[in-house]
C-alpha cells in the first residue's frame, strides 16, 4: 500500500489538529527568538548557530577570571567579633541569724521575774530573768562567815607561832582552812550568781516561751537571742561550680518575697565535699542587715557571676543550616570557604559559635545563595572590625 493509501486511511480531523499544533510551535519558537535577548547565545551552546560577538567575549572573559564559574554576584560581609560568656549561677537559700542562742538556766528553781521583754536588744552579760535565790543567798552568807572565822584562827596561830607556842604544822593547817573557806565562798557566790539568767551574746530577744512563776529546769528554754546584724544564707550549687567558688567571692541576694530588694554580700564558707546524692555543694553567704529589715528564715535568691570562655561572635544572618548542621561562609584569601560551626549561644545582635575562626575575619551575611565553595567573592560592602570585646551572659540555675 502506498503513502497515499495511508493518508486516505487517517481521519481528516487528526490532520487538522496536527497542523494547528505545528503552527503553534513554530510561532512560539519565532517569538522566543525575537523577544528573548539571550536566544542566540543559548542556540550557540546547543550547536545551532553562533553567539553574538559581545556576549561571547564576555562569557570567555568570565570563564578566564573564575575558571569556568558563573559570573560573580556581589555579597555583603560582616566582621567576626570576640565574645566572653559570663557564666551566671542562681540558687535559692534560707537566711539565718549570724548567731542564735537558746538560753537555759544553770539550775532548777522557780522563775522569779523577767527583766526584759520580747523584741528587746540586749548586750552580752545583761540579765534576762532571775530565779528564786533565798537558799543560795544564805549559803553565800554562811560561807562568808566561815571565811572570816578561818582567817581569825590563822591570825591567832601566827601570833602563837612567834612565841613558839604553836607548831608549823598548826600554822599550815590554819592557812589551809582559810583557802578552803575562800573556795567555799566562791562556790556559794557562783551558785547565787547563776540564779540570775544572763544573755550570752548581744542580740534581739525573741518571744518569751514561759511566764514568771513557772518552775524551770536546766532543760527549760527561757528565751532565744538572735544576732541579726548580719544574716547567713545557706544554699546549694551544682558541682560544676565547686572550683569557681571561694571564700570572699561577691554575690547578690534578692528577697523572694520582695524582688526589688537586692543586697550585696560575700561567700563566708564553702563545704569541703560534694553531696553524693544531689551532686551539689553547700555554700554559706553573709549579707549585712544594717537597718534590721531582714529576718532569719527569709528566702533569698543568690546570684553569682563567673568569667567564662571566649568564643567567636558572628552576625545572625551569617549562620546557615545544611544537612550536616549549622555553617557559615567565611572569606579567606578572597575566596569563600564553608565552615561548620556549633552554636554556643544566641543573642540579639550576635551568635556565639564554636569554630576555627579568628576575630577580624569576615563572613558572608547577604548574597549567600550565590556563594560556592572555593569561589572568588566580590564584596559589595563590609562592616569595619571593632576593637572592643562584646560581652555575653549565660544563666545556670542551681540549688
Write out key terms for the chains shown.
399 residues, 6 helices, 6-stranded mixed sheet, 6-stranded antiparallel beta barrel, conserved putative lor/sdh protein from methanococcus maripaludis s2 fold, 5 domains, 37% strand, alpha+beta, Elongation Factor Tu (Ef-tu), domain 3, rod-shaped
Walk me through what this model shows.
- The protein folds into 5 domains: 54 residues, no CATH class; 101 residues, Beta Barrel (conserved putative lor/sdh protein from methanococcus maripaludis s2 fold); 87 residues, Efflux pump adaptor protein, beta barrel domain (Elongation Factor Tu (Ef-tu), domain 3); 45 residues, no CATH class; 62 residues, Helix Hairpins.
- It contains 6 helices and 21 strands.
- The N and C termini lie far apart (100 Å).
- The N terminus is likely disordered.
